[in-house]
């Protein structure tokens, strides 16, 4: 059975995997989640949060047998971890996530390449310019559009400010990152990262490495059993 490490997206924390972890363990897998620097219960000041530190947090929680799943913005920290030490983990899974299509790009660069950016109207910058939050009234439509009202309210209440610095930092990728197996899970009803942009990002990927779910941006809440089953199949495929 596989060992999964779950990495959250922007403004989220380890809490968002609440329903997926038991779904994976019910299938016999190991599963755990962490808070990235500055998110969830981690108290790193936002001016000290970097992409490298986020990648280091992923590596610190991984083993050479770990399949690392990165959601949304979490695609960049897991890529940074793989580039820093590809032997420190087993494989990467991008869950409706941004990932660098070439070296020298930041997550902000990748987001700007999308044909539309639904999240922009919901973003509020902090007075010091170091972080951003999501307008609570707009979060359900962005992140939880196919969740129950109870799930959406539970998750929205737990959203936290997101450090902006690491999302604007360019990442370097080489054959070190490219040496690892990687898979992508495209969410066809995503309200945050346009599905057509997910298609574009994965256009050159081997077709057996691109999978789909008919869900919104947060299948770990709206369909944890379906997501767990798909991750299990990805793990079995190697």
TrEMBL record:
<feature type="domain" description="AB hydrolase-1">
    <location>
        <begin position="4"/>
        <end position="229"/>
    </location>
</feature>
<dbReference type="InterPro" id="IPR000073">
    <property type="entry name" value="AB_hydrolase_1"/>
</dbReference>
<dbReference type="Pfam" id="PF12697">
    <property type="entry name" value="Abhydrolase_6"/>
</dbReference>
<dbReference type="InterPro" id="IPR052897">
    <property type="entry name" value="Sec-Metab_Biosynth_Hydrolase"/>
</dbReference>
<protein>
    <recommendedName>
        <fullName>AB hydrolase-1 domain-containing protein</fullName>
    </recommendedName>
</protein>
<dbReference type="InterPro" id="IPR029058">
    <property type="entry name" value="AB_hydrolase_fold"/>
</dbReference>
């Amino acid at each position: 059975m596989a060992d999964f490490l779950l990495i959250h997206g922007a403004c989220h924390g380890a809490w968002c995997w609440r329903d997926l972890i038991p779904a994976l363990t019910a299938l016999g897998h190991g599963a755990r989640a962490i808070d990235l620097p500055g998110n969830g219960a981690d108290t790193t000041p936002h001016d000290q949060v970097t992409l490298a530190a986020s990648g280091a947090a992923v590596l610190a929680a991984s083993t050479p047998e770990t399949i690392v799943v990165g959601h949304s913005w979490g695609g960049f920290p897991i890529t940074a971890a793989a580039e820093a030490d590809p032997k420190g983990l087993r494989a990467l899974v991008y869950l409706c996530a941004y990932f660098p299509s070439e070296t020298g790009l930041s997550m902000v660069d990748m987001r700007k390449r999308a044909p539309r950016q639904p999240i922009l109207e919901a973003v509020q910058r902090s007075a010091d310019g170091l972080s951003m939050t999501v307008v609570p009234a707009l979060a359900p439509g962005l992140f939880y559009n196919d969740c129950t009202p109870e799930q959406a309210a539970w998750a929205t209440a737990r959203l936290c400010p997101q450090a902006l610095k690491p999302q604007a930092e360019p990442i370097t990728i080489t054959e070190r990152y490219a040496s690892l197996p990687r898979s992508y899970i495209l969410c066809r009803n995503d309200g945050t990262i346009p599905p057509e942009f997910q298609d574009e990002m994965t256009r050159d990927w081997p077709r057996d490495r691109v999978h789909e779910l008919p869900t919104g941006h947060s299948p770990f809440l709206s369909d944890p059993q379906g997501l767990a089953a798909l991750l299990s199949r990805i793990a079995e495929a190697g």
